[in-house]
Design brief:
CATH class of the largest domain in chain A: Alpha Beta
Number of helices of chain B: 24
Shape of chain B: globular
Radius of gyration of chain A: 19 Å
Distance between the termini of chain A: 30 Å
Bound molecules: flavin-adenine dinucleotide, thiamine diphosphate, magnesium ion
CATH class of the largest domain in chain B: Alpha Beta
Strand order of the largest sheet of chain B: 2-1-3-4-6-5
Number of strands of chain A: 9
Oligomer: heterodimer
Largest sheet of chain B: 6 strands, parallel
Number of domains of chain B: 3
CATH topology of the largest domain in chain A: Alpha-Beta Plaits
Strand content of chain B: 5-15%
Structural class of chain B: alpha/beta
Helix content of chain B: 25-40%
CATH superfamily of the largest domain in chain A: ACT domain
Shape of chain A: elongated
Number of domains of chain A: 2
Structural class of chain A: alpha+beta
Distance between the termini of chain B: 50 Å
Chain lengths: ~180, ~600
């Protein structure tokens, strides 16, 4: 039960299945900005074979009462099929994909490749003066990799934001409730 | 899918989009549309011209069209329908839409739009209507394909009236209205929507938990709100049944007035900022609170950390996002107020535990002591009309006449006095702008009520400042011979603003004087209505009786005490037990903290 005197913030990774119609993303984002909720990351793509259902993954944070509100507010949007608080519901996987460009010469290139190897980042583009690494992982892993690359020529980062799914057999489906 | 829709592609299309819209409205049971024409909706106006089933009421401003639809909806339980053009027509409607959103009023608003191929080009009278109204509606649609048109209209009505009701916008590009479009019937009620399925049936385990708490209560209260009105008149009847069988005290929010009969001895009045002494102290001191269809609004709770500190709270609401939003509750119940009340009544009977009659009797002795304070007491002496007295006499005279009476209000002190001194025995007789507090609501809302109830007495209790915000609707009253009575409590001030300036801002009455007012009697006459005025207490009854007797629109300019304040009052940031009472009653002006001053 949410407690209003509880000021402890927690992070929440929320999966939302929505009808893939015009304006649905604006509705979700407008809800967060209009009500002053945090968005740490948001990803969206269609997930069923007909492209009618999209899955939005939102990473947010707030007090327990605020997170309860966020879920209830999302759930009452007309095109929303299902809202699932993966953080609360149990073990789940969170992954993010990043493309990381490092520009440099000489020893820095060697060091960049060595670190990439340790982090299991793949080289997906290379010139004599640059690499683009691709890596997946949770946000912390990508943050750590970027931090190490910074002094040796980190030039640009592009990240997808988190996608997440529950471990095991439990499933929220990809097809809405209809 | 219905048979019609299956064949839709095969059969040659005979109807224009505009005709499809009208046919869908008819299928939805629409009898009246409040609207204002313009280029983008001309095809619909053309279709309206060629039929007789649906009546169109031409308002004088699009904001008024929405308020009229709200008045119509609130007084009938049906969906109110609005039709406006693109661009300025749509933007003018926005205040009305937000008003309906805040007060959970079912409205469908059709807006014209530039043709699909021009959308995004800054075309003439183009506005991003779905963008602008997204946070102003429960849901909105932009119809881009003729094949979607009928389905969207049907769905819009379903969304507007079901679950927590609210406004829905359908934005209609002009080419969609002109091109031929297939008609499909509304899906059968048992066919659920793909994603939108509000829960109406309560969870019985929660109902039993609630009853266990209520049975053991020593100091209970039932706090019922607008959700009971939304749930239909049966819900109000069930509320009355439940309150009577339990013997509990019952209070209503501003939006809930009429859900419980005001003359009943178990009614302790409205609660909140301008609620009664007894209602607020009952809320503060209760040990079990049953909130049914109310949303713990800040006007009701006062300072949240001091709100009803010792109580277990049960909250029944159809919208899960209303629960635990402002106040943490012990027993949440998601469901329709009517279903919840029926379930509570059944479970109360089934539960063998006897209620604590002795404790309840002691609680009522305490309540009666609070009541004895007579917090709504005022003194009418001399010739200056006290605004409270004006409302009280209006109420008494309408009761005596026994006519079916509906009251709307504008926003300000007069609204609060109307809530305090006008009693309602039944739901759907009281229309006021609670959540948004929109000055200018009352006259158009009264118009909508009168359209729905042509033989009833419909009165807008107004302030002289508010009434000017939609005064142009006097023209609509005249055109359709709507005998609405505008009862202005004219204090020559934006009284509610003046009151806050007196209490919170050192009596610096910055810009709150209503200067250069029109002569309301002449103004009425110029709009083909009847104007009358009362300047002394001796005139009051005569003016009220004449006003009611005239079968035409009337403006009654009631010149009242300019410096009167509205009490009791819980100052912003204060708790229920820190209420200010009127002059001559103990409890002086509590100091308002800066923390309180930042609140509205
Ligand atoms: C100048 C001014 C002063 C005011 N002072 C006061 C005051 O002193 N006291 C006061 O009470 N208000 C006051 N108000 C009004 C206040 O701002 C709120 O509008 C009002 O308190 C809200 O009423 P409510 O809680 O009944 O909720 P509503 O706004 O009527 O909301 C209804 C609730 O019921 C739910 N619901 C809807 N349909 C159903 C259903 N079928 N079944 C179950 N639940 C349903 C909704 O989800 C919602 O939570 C004032 C307003 C103004 C402008
Ligand atoms: C559209 C709008 N603008 C401003 C306000 C703020 N406001 C609330 S009450 C009020 C004064 C209303 O004056 P009047 O209609 O004369 O009513 P009184 O309080 O004097 O009874 C104002 C300006 C509002 N509620 N609505
Ligand atoms: Mg005034």
């Amino acid at each position: 039960m949410p407690d209003p005197t509880d000021n402890n913030m927690r992070a929440a990774t929320i999966a939302v299945l929505v009808e893939n119609e015009a304006g649905v993303l604006a509705r979700v984002i407008g809800l967060f900005s209009g009500r002053g909720y945090n968005i740490d990351s948001l990803t969206v793509a269609p997930v069923d074979e007909t492209g009618r259902i999209s899955r939005i993954t939102i990473v947010t944070s707030g007090t327990e009462m605020v997170i309860e509100q966020i879920k209830a507010q999302l759930d009452r949007l007309v095109p929303v099929h299902k809202v699932s608080d993966l953080t609360l519901e149990g073990p789940h996987l969170v992954r993010e994909l990043a493309l990381i460009k490092v520009v440099g010469k000489g020893d820095n290139r060697v060091e960049a490749l060595r670190l990439a190897d340790a982090f299991r980042a793949r080289v997906v583009d290379a010139t004599t003066e640059s690499f683009v690494f691709e890596m997946t992982g949770n946000a912390d892993k990508i943050d750590a990799f970027c931090a190490l690359m910074r002094p040796i020529g980190l030039a640009e980062v592009s990240r997808t934001g988190a996608v997440a799914i529950a471990r095991g057999v439990s499933s929220i489906g990809s097809f809405g409730e209809g | 899918m219905s048979a019609t829709s299956q064949h839709a592609d095969a059969t040659p299309l005979t109807m224009s989009g505009a005709e499809v819209v009208l046919r869908a409205l008819k299928e939805q049971g629409v009898e009246v549309i409040f609207g204002y024409p313009g280029g983008a909706v001309l095809p619909i106006y053309d279709a309206i011209f060629q039929q007789n089933a649906i009546r169109h009421i031409l308002v004088r401003h699009e904001q008024a069209a929405v308020h009229a639809a709200e008045g119509y909806a609130r007084s009938t339980g049906k969906v109110g329908v609005v039709l406006v053009t693109s661009g300025p027509g749509a933007t003018n409607a926005v205040t009305g839409l937000v008003d309906a959103l805040m007060d959970s009023i079912p409205v469908v608003c059709l807006t014209g739009q530039v043709p699909t191929h021009l959308i995004g080009n800054d075309a003439f009278q183009e506005a991003d209507t779905t963008g602008i109204t997204r946070p102003a509606t429960k849901h909105n649609y932009l119809v881009k394909k003729s094949g979607d048109l009928a389905r969207v209209v049907h769905e819009a009505f379903h969304v507007a009236r079901s679950g927590r009701p609210g406004p829905v916008v359908i934005d209609l590009p002009k080419d969609i209205l002109i091109n031929k479009a297939p008609y499909t019937e509304a899906p059968p009620p048992e066919q659920p929507h793909r994603s939108y399925r509000p829960q109406t049936e309560p969870d019985m385990a929660q109902i039993r938990k609630a009853v266990a708490l209520l049975k053991a209560a020593k100091k209970p209260v039932v706090y019922a709100g607008g959700g009971v009105i939304n749930a239909g008149p049966e819900a109000s009847a069930l509320l009355t049944q439940f309150v009577r069988m339990t013997g509990f005290p019952c209070t209503n929010t501003l939006m809930g007035l009429g859900a419980y009969p005001s003359s009943d001895p178990q009614f302790i009045g409205m609660l909140g900022m301008h609620g009664t002494y007894e209602a607020n102290l009952v809320m503060h001191g209760c040990d079990v609170m049953l909130n049914i269809g109310a949303r713990f609004d800040d006007r009701v709770t006062g300072k949240l950390t001091h709100f009803s500190p010792g109580s277990k709270k049960i909250h029944a609401d159809i919208d899960p996002s209303s629960i635990n939003k402002n106040v943490k509750v012990d027993v949440p119940i998601v469901g329709d107020a009517g279903r919840v009340l029926a379930a509570l009544i059944a479970a109360w009977k089934d539960d063998p535990a006897p209620p604590d009659r002795e404790a309840l009797a002691a609680w009522w002795r305490q309540i009666d002591a609070w009541r004895a304070k007579d917090c709504l007491h005022y003194v009418q002496s001399g010739s200056i009309i006290k605004p409270q007295h004006a409302v009280k006499r209006l109420y008494e005279i309408t009761r005596e006449l026994g006519r079916e009476t509906f009251v709307t209000t504008e926003v300000g002190q007069h609204q609060m006095w109307a809530a305090q001194y006008f009693g309602f025995e039944k739901p759907n007789r009281w229309m006021t702008s609670g959540g948004l507090g929109t000055m200018g609501y009352g006259l158009p809302a009264a118009m909508g009520v009168q359209i729905a109830h042509p033989d009833a007495l419909v009165i807008d209790i107004a302030g002289e400042a508010s009434i000017l915000m939609n005064i142009q609707e006097m023209g609509t009253l005249a055109q359709y011979r709507l005998p609405v009575k505008v009862f202005i409590l004219n204090n020559e001030y934006m009284g509610m603003v003046r009151q806050w300036q007196e209490l919170l801002h050192g009596g610096r009455y910055s810009e709150s004087y209503s200067a250069a007012l029109p002569d309301f009697v002449k103004l009425a006459e110029s709009f083909h209505a009847v104007g009358m005025r009362a300047t002394s207490a001796d005139d009051l009854d005569r003016v009220i009786r004449e006003m009611i007797a005239i079968d035409k629109p009337v403006i009654a300019d009631i010149c009242v005490d300019q410096k009167e304040n509205c009490f009791p009052m819980i100052p912003s940031g204060a708790a229920h037990n820190e209420m200010i009472l009127g002059p001559g009653q103990e409890g002086g002006v509590a100091g308002v903290t800066d923390e309180g001053k930042v609140l509205v």
